[in-house]
């Protein structure tokens, strides 16, 4: 279909930058998610790709052709907005056919393409309905069909499911992924939902303050975050801030070997990397509460320094409130000034040396 190349693209508003020197290559048929909090610049970047915003600097190319200054109608892109942007005075067929009529296609060809697009998004037979008669999910399918019927080289989706309930979002994102895979169309999908990005993307671009924090596949982003921001934004992550002295984190409840220069670090580890054991010691960590999710339990643990961490345990482990526990940690990360400075015991590897306050090695107890 198409290859997209973004080089040093920026967009400034006044004295600040909404997008600041972003570069990205999107391969033919790839689905890339732009992920980040509100104000991170992801929608502005998408709108520049679609021609709805003009970059302050940088270039945008599609299949080697510079489209940076072309208006939306001159670009081989199709955009689906969060608001649907359907014409309420037209029925479904007329909404989808509008762009084809502007291209001067014969009536028979228009009808064939519109019916094909409706079937593709699961709305065969809905052409005569008014858009106000449709549910939110059906309206978003019409918006998707209106873009796909023009056969764009690149599909741009700007948080298309943000206004829908969770179950409908999950169903529609599966349908969109199926359609994208079937058509092999190069796609950029803007979202602030981490689950959506992990479920849909071939690669994820994590953005913050107009810049890219990390670009990688979902598994890499989740298992090997390169910044503290990415670690906290993707999935559930525990953070414990403490000092390193002599190559060890001297925490009241656990001691971790950490071969980094002395100073404060942020230790990060996921709930599934925590195992719990009994701790017949004075003080130490204790259970705050447990939540049964059916497939697992999430246990909130209060540490003696006032911080709280989560542990994911099998559903059969029923830890009680105020029960004292010892923590054994598998995969963990150390950050300083938002940057990763050390990663140890990745999933499937050996556990790091974690000790209880009395010096017992809990990793090998």
Put the structure in a nutshell:
The chain is α+β, with helices and mostly antiparallel strands. It has helices at residues 42-50, 92-102, 107-120, 136-148, 166-183, 194-200, 218-223, 228-233; strands at 4-13, 16-26, 31-35, 57-62, 65-66, 77-80, 154-158, 186-191, 203-208, 211-216, 238-245, 248-250, 255-257, 263-269, 274-278, 285-292, 297-302, 308-313, 324-329, 332-336, 339-344, 354-355.
User: Which quaternary structure do these chains form?
Assistant: single chain
Count the strands?
A: 22
What count of helical segments does DSSP give? Answer: 8
CATH topology of the largest domain: Rossmann fold
Main sheet attributes: strand count, strand direction, barrel closure: 7 strands, antiparallel
Q: What global shape is seen? A: elongated
Q: What is the CATH architecture annotation of the largest domain?
A: 3-Layer(aba) Sandwich
Q: How many distinct folded domains?
A: 2
DSSP helix fraction = 10-25%
| H/E series | EEEHEEEHHHEHEHEEHHEEEEEEEEEEEE
Radius of gyration: 25 Å
Would you give an account of this structure?
Helices cover 23% and strands 35% of the residues. It is of the alpha+beta class and 365 residues long. The protein has two domains: 4-223, P-loop containing nucleotide triphosphate hydrolases (Rossmann fold); 236-364, Beta Barrel (OB fold (Dihydrolipoamide Acetyltransferase, E2P)). A seven-stranded antiparallel β-sheet has the order 21-20-14-11-12-13-22. β11 (238-245) and β12 (248-250) form a beta hairpin. α2 runs parallel beside α4. The longest helix is centred in the middle third of the chain and has 18 residues, at 166-183. The termini are far apart.
């Amino acid at each position: 279909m198409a290859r997209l190349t973004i080089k040093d693209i920026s967009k400034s508003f006044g004295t600040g930058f909404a997008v600041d020197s972003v570069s990205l290559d999107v391969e033919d048929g790839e689905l890339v998610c732009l992920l980040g909090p509100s104000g991170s610049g992801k929608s502005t970047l998408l709108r520049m790709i679609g021609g709805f915003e003009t970059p302050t600097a940088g270039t945008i190319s599609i299949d080697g052709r510079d489209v940076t200054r072309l208006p939306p109608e001159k670009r081989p892109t199709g955009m689906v907005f969060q608001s649907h942007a359907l014409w309420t005075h037209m029925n479904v067929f007329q909404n989808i056919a509008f762009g084809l009529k502007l291209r001067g296609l014969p009536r028979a060809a228009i009808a064939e393409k519109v019916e094909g697009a409706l079937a593709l998004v699961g709305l065969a037979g809905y052409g005569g309905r008014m858009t106000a008669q449709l549910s939110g999910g059906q309206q978003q399918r019409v918006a998707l069909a209106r873009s796909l019927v023009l056969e764009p080289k690149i599909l741009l989706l700007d948080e298309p499911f943000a206004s829908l309930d969770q179950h409908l979002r999950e169903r529609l994102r599966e349908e969109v992924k199926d359609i994208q895979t079937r058509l092999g169309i190069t796609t950029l999908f803007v979202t602030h939902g981490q689950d959506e990005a992990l479920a849909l993307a071939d690669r994820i671009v994590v953005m913050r303050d107009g810049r890219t924090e990390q670009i990688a596949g979902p598994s890499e982003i989740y298992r090997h975050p390169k910044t503290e921001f990415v670690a906290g934004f993707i999935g559930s992550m525990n953070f414990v801030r403490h000092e390193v002295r002599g190559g060890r984190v001297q925490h009241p409840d656990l001691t971790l070997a950490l071969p980094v220069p002395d100073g404060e670090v942020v230790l990060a580890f996921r709930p599934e990397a925590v195992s719990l054991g009994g701790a017949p010691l004075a003080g130490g960590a204790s259970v705050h509460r447990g939540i049964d999710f059916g497939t697992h339990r999430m246990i909130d643990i209060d540490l003696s320094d006032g911080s709280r961490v989560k542990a994911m345990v099998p559903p059969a482990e029923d830890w009680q409130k105020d029960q004292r526990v010892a923590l054994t940690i598998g995969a963990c990360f150390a950050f300083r000034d938002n940057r990763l400075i050390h990663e140890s015991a990745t999933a499937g590897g050996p556990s790091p040396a974690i000790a209880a306050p009395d010096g017992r090695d809990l990793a090998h107890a």
